[in-house]
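lol ok so funny story. i was supposed to be doing the assay writeup but got distracted and ended up predicting the structure for this chain instead. priorities right. anyway since i did it might as well share w the group, maybe its usefull for someone
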Amino acid sequence: MKKAIYLIPMVFLGGCNFFDSELVVACEETLKKRLRSPSSYERIELTSRSTELNTRDEVKAKLIAHGHDGALLEAQLRDFDSGTAKPTEFSLLIEYDAPNAYGTMLRDVSKCEYFSMSGRVDRASWFNVKVDGQTDIEWFTERLKKIR
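and the output, tada:
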């Protein structure tokens, strides 16, 4: 009888991505916003990689690329110099199927990137991940410029 009690909840959880990290959730949420039919998105495969940045120059360049400057930049570099920060670049390759404008399912791959000074992905969100080189805001802004 106990086995049945444990199996029933698993049947209902089978369709959700309960074990996906915040990074996977943020990347897929951002990617789906860019598709013609987000509800038809099907993940095929995820490949993840993380790279810890070891030099001050690498960290500074990455922070500047993410728009950090002034006092915030200096504070983060002090954290790195003191050893309290663990700057890490995370990347995901997402292979997926999604329909084109004519409804034909096509397979594609997108790259999602996230930079963290803590070495963790628990603060990844739609507004701070880059999918195919652009944040959600950058992508949306570019789309608006094309409309004009």
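The CA atoms of residues 63 and 73 lie 7 Å apart. The chain is about 40% helix and 25% strand.
back to the writeup now i swear
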